[in-house]
Every structure is written in C-alpha cells, then in structure tokens.
Amino acid sequence: MARAKAFDVDVAVDRAMEVFWANGFGDTTPQQLVDALGIGRGSLYNAFTSKHALYERALRRYYERETVRLIEILDGPGPARERLRAAVGLVVEAAREDRRGCMMANAAVEFGEADEVVNHLVRRTFERQEAAFRSTIEEGQRAGDIDPDADAGALAAFLLTTINGIRVLAKADPDPRRLAGLAETALRAL
C-alpha cells in the first residue's frame, strides 16, 4: 500500500514559487527547495519529478495569483479608465513593496526562447494580460472615455510593456515618485 504524502502539495508549490521568484530557476538549488518546502529530497522528486517540473508549476501558480488579480481589476465594475488606473496602480504598489519584479518577465529574461514550456507559459501570461488591457480600452472607447480613433491593440501592448518596465526598473530603483510618474505618463497616453 502506498504511503500518503506527508505534505500539502499546494503549500509546497506556493513556497517553491517564492524561492524561484526570488532566485530564478538557475540560481535555485535543490537544497533551497528542500529547505523552503520542509520536505526531504526524495519527497521533492517523488512529488514533482524534477526541479524544472516544479518550476513550471510555480510559474502556473504565479499566473493564478498575480495575473488573475490584475485581470479581475480590469474586468471589474466601474469606468474603464479608472480600472486601467487601478490595474497600473496595483503593479506600481507591488513593484515598490516587492523588488523581485514579475516572475514571468524574470523567466523570459532567464530563458528567452531556450525552453519551450517556459516560453509558452510566459507568452500565454503576457497575451492574457494584453487582451484584458485591450478589452478594457475598447470598452472605454465605446463609452467615450478613451479616444475611439486610437489603436486599442497598440495601447494595450504599450500598457503591458509599461507595467513590465516598471517592475524591472523597481528592482534597481524603487523610488515611489518615479514609478508613479511613469504610471501616470502611461495613463495620459490613453
């Protein structure tokens, strides 16, 4: 009879996400994962098969936690322009408080196109964020809050680039005035 797992897999993935987010994939050692998850090395590999498989799960968890929050704001109630302001504000606040940057952007920088699975997860995340920005911008255009002649796709891509740029910049320079100024400049472009 197989032994039941002595740990909560969801908690383990959350903890692994934090370790990978702080260190990246390449600089995270199996021992760091074992220590953070509070399990033995054998349990780590039995549960997740490999460091890379655990990293993939951690990226998916990051999507579920961070990207879904952004999308919920963009899809929420209220005027489109205010939802866009709240979404960008969420990113600025998170970047000020947590200088690890965006885990997906970090993965994109670390792997580029070298890892098909990671690249797919990163692209899917960015595409989903951009689609949510675009939908909100188009809603604002229909309501007359945003210039209806503006290219909604280009504005959405611009906002996606801006929020990721803010996250990267905050890793080196978390000055709240600077980050808020960048956000405000981006929002004025709408």
TrEMBL record:
* HTH tetR-type domain segment(s): 6-66
- Spell out the InterPro entries in the cross-references: Homeodomain-like_sf (IPR009057), HTH_TetR (IPR001647), Tet_transcr_reg_TetR-rel_C_sf (IPR036271), TetR_C (IPR011075)
Keyword Transcription found: yes
Pfam families with a match to the protein in the record = TetR_C_13, TetR_N
Coiled coil (UniProt feature): none
- The protein's superkingdom reads Bacteria
Residue ranges the UniProt entry marks as DNA-binding: 29-48
Q: Does the keyword Transit peptide apply?
A: no
UniProt keyword terms in alphabetical order: DNA-binding, Transcription, Transcription regulation
Record-given protein name: TetR/AcrR family transcriptional regulator
Native organism is Amycolatopsis thermalba
